[in-house]
Structures are given as C-alpha cells and as structure tokens.
Amino acid sequence: MRIFFLGTPDFSVPSLRSLAASKQHKICGVITNPDQPSGRQLKLKPPPVKTAALELGIPVYQPEKFNTAETLEIMRSSGAELLAVVAYGKIIGDAMLAAFKDKIINVHPSLLPKYRGVAPYQWALVNGETVTGVSIIYLVKQLDAGDIILQKRIDIKETDNAEMLHDSLSLIGAELLCEAAGLIEAGKAERRPQLESDATYFKKIEKSMGKIDWNLSAKKISDLVRGLYSWPCAFTAIGSDTVKIHEAAVAREYFGHGMPPGSVIIADEKKGLVIACGGNEALKIKTLQLASRNMQSCDSFLRGYKINGSITLN
User: What's the family (predicted)?
Assistant: First the structure.
C-alpha cells in the first residue's frame, strides 16, 4: 500500500521507520512542519521526522500552510492510498478529509475516548492513572473522535515518567500503525465507534502547572513530578531560588510528622531531602535542579547547598 506520512516530533519517528521497513507498504512522501529557529544563534533546525525521512531517502515537503490545493495535489499525485498522521501538529481540513475519505488514520497515545487532546500521556501521569495505551483511529473533523481500528493497553509503572511513556508509546504506536495499514489494505479493518459519554478532553500543558502546592498529598505531588518530566518540570522555591524537581517519591516512613506543608523534615546528605506535604504526608526529593545549573542528585545538591531544617518551601 502506498502511504503518505504526516508527522513532526520524535514521537512520530518510530512509526515512520516501521512503515519504511515494511515490505508490505511504501511511503511515497512525508509532510512535516517547517524548520524552526533553535539555540542562541537561532539557526534553523529540521524537525525529527524530516531528518529521519531524508536518511531513508523519502521525499519531504514542509508547507507553511497545510490545507491548500497545492498540498492536496502533492498527496494526490503521489498515488497515496492512505494518509498516516502521527503528531503532525496541524488540523486536517475539510477538503483533505473529503479527498481521502476513510483513508486517513491517526496514532493517538491514549485509550480513546479517554484523554482526547494534547499531551495525553502526561495528563495520565499527572492524574495518577495506572493504565494507558495507544489507539489507531480513522481521522474525522471532531478532535480524536474517529472510529477505533486498533488499541493496545499497557500498565503504568510507579517509576514511569512522561519521557519514559513517550518512548514506550511511540514504539507501540509504530507497531499498531503497520498492523492497521495491513488490515485496511486487506479490507479487514475494524470500525468501533467511540462512546461519546466516556470522552474526556485535556488542554495543552502549561509551565504554570509545574508550581508545587505542598498542601496536596505526597502521591499527587509525585504524580505531577512524573507527568511534567522533562518539560516543563515541577518546581518550587527555596528562599529566592527556584528549584526544578525531576524525581521524587512518596516517603511513607515520614508520614505523621506533624509539620506544616512545605516544611523541610530532613535535609541530610545521607538521609536525603524530605518535604512535608498535606495530610501529614511526606515526599522525598531524589533529583533536582537550580536555575541555570545542571540536574543533580539530592546528595550532591546538599553537599553544596545548605538548607535550614526550619525553612518552609514556597
């Protein structure tokens, strides 16, 4: 089957590579976002999908505006029988939907209809979910609402963070995408409508979400840390210093401490940094980062940064 691929970030790359490696399918072109300025010198940086596509010898197109007659003609003239959309980042307009009716499929990293919208695996972690997965759906006008072709469910481990889930789900998505394309080509693809009453929507992750409210439970704060790793990161303040928290764990051995939320229960190079949370619970900080510094383990941090045990975090 001839497939036109639409994708942009790292998440899309395993799907592109899997389709390219398949003997059953041929990628006849790739559409991705334009190169973006990056770094202090604002040099143009290609999106990961472009880099991978060029390595694979696949034609790449980077339209500034996607929903145009020119873009549609590029895909039609390629002989594409299917469009595969994996985190492209732009809305597929009515003309595209009509031209490739029932021939556009999308990889979405959640168990739809739950967690429609952006950053679904990050939100799943922030919300303390214990399972997630990937859905392959037919693309329709309504956001993430198309009929389901395939789904795969995975457990979320207590040690998983957003970066780990990103990598796991991108590989699962690649596997399912190839399988779904094969089913469509064979005329055996399932169409399972989503139950609208079960749908949940989540907005874009914002930096301001990272500010830790120490009145929350230790589990809630730990989930926030995991969900916002490695961007935008959970953060707090020690005096005038902003500190990003990259890794933390519920410290049940310190529950019942009787101290106000945000108080430093212990700050010791050997015993670690433990902070009071709501409900007399406690959180142990494992890795953190001062502004304009590198990430550090807690013991390394405490060797160079002395914390008064009575201080309350902001």
Answer: Belongs to the Fmt family.
Domains located in the chain, CATH noted: 2-202 (3.40.50.170), 207-304 (3.10.25.10)
Are the CB atoms for 117 and 145 separated by under 8 Å?
Answer: no
The answer to whether 260 is a known ligand-binding residue is no
Mapped onto helix, strand or coil, the DSSP state of residue 162 is: helix
Q: What is the pLDDT of residues 287-308, one digit of tens each?
A: 999 988 899 999 999 998 888 6
Token look-up 């469910």 returns 153
- Beta strands at 60-61 and 26-31: parallel, antiparallel or unpaired: parallel
pTM exceeding the 0.85 threshold for the entire prediction: yes
Say whether 42 counts as a known binding-site residue: no
Per-residue pLDDT reduced to its tens digit, 132-180: 999 999 999 999 999 999 999 999 999 999 999 999 999 999 999 999 9
Which residue(s) pair with 131 in the sheet? 155
Residue 173 is inside which H or E element, if any?
helix 162-185
Three-state secondary-structure class, residue 242: strand
Strand 201-202 and strand 116-117: pairing? parallel
Amino acid at 146: G
The 10 Å Cβ neighbour count of residue 133 is 24
Reduce the DSSP state of residue 298 to 3 states and report it: helix
Asked whether residue 111 is marked as a ligand-binding residue, the answer is: yes
Q: Which two tokens stand for residue 282?
A: 């406690």
Number of Cβ atoms within 10 Å of the Cβ of 242: 15
Q: Which pLDDT score, from 0 to 100, does residue 230 have?
A: 93
